[in-house]
Amino acid sequence: MDGGAIRDWLAALEHLSYYDIFRLAPHASHDELRLAFHSFADTFHPDGHQWRHPSEQAAIGYIFKRGTEAYRVLSDPALRARYNEALANGILRPESLVVATSGSGSLTPPANQRLVDKVRSPGARPFVLRAEELVKKGDPKQAKIQLVMAMHMDPKNAALEAFAKELDDAIKAKSADDKSWKK
């Protein structure tokens, strides 16, 4: 992406709905939203633009912040309903929802959200996905190896650290279970 494209995004950003940012229809599912957000993050995550001029980095950060704001609103069913109502009245970015998403309580992901959705670094995502897959297959040791890789790419991520503790408990339980079978 060149500087002109960044300027175009900045110029258009105030005229885009949250759906437009992700190129989604208002009836898009949560999975479609998640995929669109990941695609957006691959393009606009500030970590991928550290080589740019500071003014371009600031612009990328501003665009990314708006995208994360949009994702928080659209991924929360209650906020999404309120947003759709505001959008029907011609309000693209209702301040009441922006304030609601910036409070400390709504920054925590919903309990039913997948672990991969809580990952901040795009490079950690494949390792988290593999770890989740291995847990489902009943292999917590291999899942922990994958999770450690993800944690190196996304350090100090509370969700990953909590999952690591769960895996440690699962490994201990599986080890104890294996020992009881050998007796």
From TrEMBL:
Gene3D superfamilies membership: DnaJ domain
Residue span, J domain: 17-87
Coiled-coil region list: none
Pfam families, per the entry: DnaJ
SMART domains: DnaJ (SM00271)
Protein name: J domain-containing protein
Protein species of origin: Labilithrix luteola
